[in-house]
Amino acid sequence: MSAPILITGAGQRIGLAFAHHCLAQGQPVVVSYRSYRPAVDALQKAGAECLAADFSSDAGIDDFIDQVKARSDGLRAIIHNASDWMPESPERSATETMQAMMQVHAMAPYRINLALQNLLTSGDGPRDIIHMTDYVVEKGSAKHIAYAASKAALANLTLSFARLLAPRVKVNSVAPSLICFNAGDDAAYRQKALGKSLLQMEPGEAVAVQTLQFILDNPYLTGRTLALDGGRHLA
Ligand SMILES: NC(=O)C1=CN([C@@H]2O[C@H](COP(=O)(O)OP(=O)(O)OC[C@H]3O[C@@H](n4cnc5c(N)ncnc54)[C@H](OP(=O)(O)O)[C@@H]3O)[C@@H](O)[C@H]2O)C=CC1
Ligand SMILES: Nc1nc2c(c(=O)[nH]1)N=C([C@H](O)[C@@H](O)CO)CN2
């Protein structure tokens, strides 16, 4: 059996869609989830190894690393997808917001990549790390300042880990803009968000799945970011 792909934050949406995509192709997966949902049960039944993990503390990151090491002696890829789209809020201090964003979007991928790099470099065939960043790395965000800064840190980790792990491991980012709305997004927000890109659409998780698979299949991409944003930069 081929080495599994490790996907963080796969309890819903993009991570969940990619996990099912991999399983449908006979590619084993190990996933992290934070909140239990029936979708996690279904993913487990479909053959995924599902590990509970909360990256908001260093102990939570260490525990996840230990769980992965205990279950795998090799990895095909690590997809850092886990994320919290946290806006600035009067209910939270600026320090708390920045610390939470850096913890999940930078500290967790940094610590996990360093701890698990040998699982990637063992064995034959292509090996990948993919960081899910965000279009706002290029432009900033007035309402998600700490979030955008933490995703920019993650984008820089792509460059450093590409240098560190070449030529054995490719390291790339995907920088989406709107992929899929959240349940609480009202009609006014949806209309405004759709108008922010040239293609003016909510493409859904499938386009992220396609992009991730493209990167895994391509032997000549590393240290790069694939923008998945409907032409937002030209709107
Ligand atoms: N969806 C979109 O339109 C866009 C997505 N992206 C990026 O693409 C990726 C996937 O997006 P999407 O599917 O919407 O992601 P979600 O917002 O659904 O988050 C994915 C998962 O991350 C988990 N997570 C959040 N915080 C933590 C934590 N501290 N420790 C462990 N797990 C955590 C959540 O777990 P739980 O649910 O259990 O809390 C959630 O299931 C993300 O990195 C996102 O930033 C970028 C731009 C647009
Ligand atoms: N972790 C998440 N990050 C982001 C999300 C999300 O739902 N979860 N959504 C967005 C928006 O779609 C934005 O790109 C367009 O308004 C950004 N990041």
From TrEMBL:
Major enzyme class: oxidoreductase
Pfam families: adh_short_C2
Listed EC numbers: 1.5.1.3, 1.5.1.50
Claim: Protease is one of the keywords in the record: no
PROSITE patterns, alphabetized: ADH_SHORT
Catalytic activity: (6S)-5,6,7,8-tetrahydrofolate + NADP(+) = 7,8-dihydrofolate + NADPH + H(+); 7,8-dihydromonapterin + NADPH + H(+) = 5,6,7,8-tetrahydromonapterin + NADP(+)
MF term (GO), any: oxidoreductase activity
Keywords: NADP, One-carbon metabolism, Oxidoreductase
Annotated family: Belongs to the short-chain dehydrogenases/reductases (SDR) family. FolM subfamily.
Role summary: Catalyzes the reduction of dihydromonapterin to tetrahydromonapterin. Also has lower activity with dihydrofolate.
NCBIfam families associated with the record: PRK06483.1
Protein name from the UniProt record: Dihydromonapterin reductase
